[in-house]
Design goal:
73% helix, 193 residues, mainly alpha, 9 helices
């Protein structure tokens, strides 16, 4: 067991920050702090250890662990000779990112795309509805394109994806140069004004 006061200051700071960020990400502070503790822990922890370390009730920890499992952000481990369940965060941060991105997609983006597809099948009766449907089409097309790109990135090896991300400003400069050479940026600016 790790006593709360025995946690190094850096660990306490990280755990507190993740709790605050949890509220902004749509999870409660307790779940954010639990995840932070598991993420920095050198070994898997059981629910009692987490409750004692963080000063949470055992029932709050149990509910938080269920939520973390539903997000696929923790892995269940069994220790030889111990009947308790132990939990750990995936060691690979790329795996964590993928799990978060896939779950957010499933919970937030796919329902939005489904609603947009349904709305786009409707026959607009007024100019106002045609305008609204055209705006929905633009939103659908952007989200659909982003999801296609996301699927392509998900297929990459982590090392390749990291290289791609590192090329961000270089790719942007190449595309801007191409636009200048083809006159596309001038046409785009004229369209926007």
């Amino acid at each position: 067991m790790i006593e709360p006061d025995a946690l190094p200051a850096l660990s306490r700071q990280f755990i507190a920050h993740f709790g605050e960020m949890g509220n902004r990400w749509g999870i409660n502070r307790t779940v954010g702090q639990m995840y932070a503790l598991l993420f920095i822990s050198e070994r898997p922890l059981n629910a009692d250890e987490m409750a004692d370390t963080l000063g949470f009730s055992r029932s709050n920890v149990s509910m938080g662990l269920k939520e973390l499992q539903s997000w696929r952000l923790v892995k269940l481990r069994h220790m030889p000779g111990d009947r308790r369940e132990y939990f750990e965060a995936p060691a690979d941060v790329w795996e964590i990112f993928r799990a978060l991105a896939e779950e957010r997609r499933r919970r937030e983006i796919e329902p939005t795309l489904s609603m947009l597809r349904t709305a786009l099948l409707e026959q607009p009766a007024t100019d106002s509805e045609r305008h609204a449907q055209a705006r929905m089409q633009a939103m659908h097309d952007l989200i659909d394109r982003l999801m296609t790109w996301f699927d392509d990135v998900q297929k990459l090896a982590p090392e390749t994806a990291m290289q791609l991300m590192g090329m961000g400003s270089t790719v942007t400069k190449v595309l801007e140069f191409k636009d200048r050479m083809t006159g596309r940026s001038a046409a785009r600016q004229a369209k926007e004004t």
